[in-house]
Design goal:
- The chain is built from 13 helices and no strands.
- It is mostly helical and 392 residues long.
- The protein is globular, with a radius of gyration of 20 Å.
- It has one domain.
Length: 392
């Protein structure tokens, strides 16, 4: 099977899984928008955004580093991830009193969902095996089962008019189920799926992976700091409007991620097809931008039932960043392949700095519209810097 057949097959499985999770996400967002309004949508999505940052930190770049080294001590990796997840749970809760935009509902929502960090972490560790074996069908199966069960619980909560903060409990249950089934499916390749707690191995991972982890952390912060700044400078209703648009935008961004998940193990062996992969990503990005600009009003109307007109303009602006996001996904992993960890960290640190400065200046005036433009500008800046580093 050639490069493109393998990439297409594994990407197709991931896209199929994303169809399930995206359908679930949009049903949930639609129910929240219709039953809890802009304020409730803002609280719900802000809590999810906050927790998502810790899901990314739980990754810490371990998978990319271990896969590149080729020496996979999976049980020790699982043990390291569980320890690190415990630290992140404490950190997520410990930061709550100091957040300037916190409210009782937001804090309760985080409390209901915070243990999902463990589920996400276990699933990420299982994905290392699925990625190495090019068996993303198994990853998709585990995530789909958990997503569907979580959706059913969520619908029940909304039907009984539970507070918006308690909806995160359904999110937590979903992640635990996903992790459980992922561990079952990993047993196709590993006899023992129990964690081993090796402090020396854990310290080794942190020592060698921190540049990737720091880059991912900066990437997440620069991706979603705008939601927190809107909550601080404006209100949670504006957060709800922006996050509806961003949720749709973010769904499209998984496509280059899926392609790179499939291509990265092949990239480690050969870079012969990289230009064709880049052109394919660019073509998909332009198609995505055109379709989003045309269909954004219809999609937002169907999703929310009305009253979220600001989300249309925000989504159309965000879609202008597709070309930059799609190409930077490829170039980021190329930098990792070439071992340019520190340069990659510097690029995203500078991008974050510019992003925060622009948001700080313009969000107080133009709220989610400013955040949308800043997101696009920041990603093109990062793309340009990636190209400059790789051309040196």
């Amino acid at each position: 099977m050639n490069h493109f057949s393998k990439i297409f097959k594994q990407t197709s499985w991931q896209v199929a899984g994303k169809v399930v999770t995206s359908a679930s996400t949009f049903i949930i967002l639609g129910l929240v928008a219709r039953n809890y309004g802009k304020e409730g949508t803002g609280i719900f999505t802000l809590a999810l955004t906050y927790l998502a940052m810790f899901y990314m930190l739980a990754d810490f770049g371990f998978n990319a580093h271990v896969l590149k080294k080729g020496d996979i001590e999976w049980n020790k990796l699982l043990g390291a991830r569980i320890i690190w997840s415990g630290v992140l749970v404490v950190l997520a809760l410990g930061l709550l009193p100091f957040l300037p935009f916190k409210t009782p509902l937001f804090s309760n929502a985080v409390l209901f969902g915070v243990l999902a960090i463990f589920g996400s972490s276990v699933f990420t560790t299982c994905n290392l095996i699925f990625q190495k074996k090019l068996r993303y069908d198994l990853s998709v199966l585990a995530s789909s089962i958990g997503t569907i069960i979580s959706l059913l619980i969520f619908v029940g909560f909304v039907s009984f008019k539970f507070p918006v903060s308690s909806l995160l409990f359904a999110h937590f249950i979903g992640w635990i189920i996903i992790a459980f089934f992922a561990l079952i499916l990993v047993r196709k390749f590993l006899r023992n799926v129990f964690p081993l707690y090796d402090i020396r191995y854990t310290l080794y991972l942190f020592k060698d992976s921190w540049p990737i982890a720091a880059t991912l952390a900066l990437n997440v912060i620069y991706f979603r700091a705008d939601s927190f700044m809107i909550a601080y400078f404006k209100n949670t209703a504006d957060v709800g409007i922006y996050n509806i648009a961003y949720s749709i935008f973010q769904t499209a961004l998984v496509l280059p991620t899926f392609i790179m998940n499939a291509y990265y193990p092949l990239m480690l062996k050969s870079l012969k097809k990289i230009k064709l992969i880049g052109l394919s990503l660019l073509g998909l990005a332009f198609i995505g931008t055109i379709f989003t600009i045309i269909f954004a009003p219809f999609v937002i109307k169907i999703l929310t039932g009305g009253g979220f007109e600001g989300s249309v303009a925000s989504l159309q602006i965000l879609s202008l960043g597709f070309p930059a996001y799609f190409l930077s996904a490829l170039l980021m992993w190329l930098l990792i392949t070439k071992g340019k960890y520190k340069q990659m960290f510097a690029i995203y640190a500078f991008g974050l700095l510019v992003n925060i400065i622009l948001n700080f200046i313009y969000i107080p005036q133009s709220s989610f519209i400013a955040a949308s433009w800043t997101t696009v500008i920041s990603e093109y800046l990062i793309l340009i810097l990636q190209i400059l580093i790789l051309r040196r």
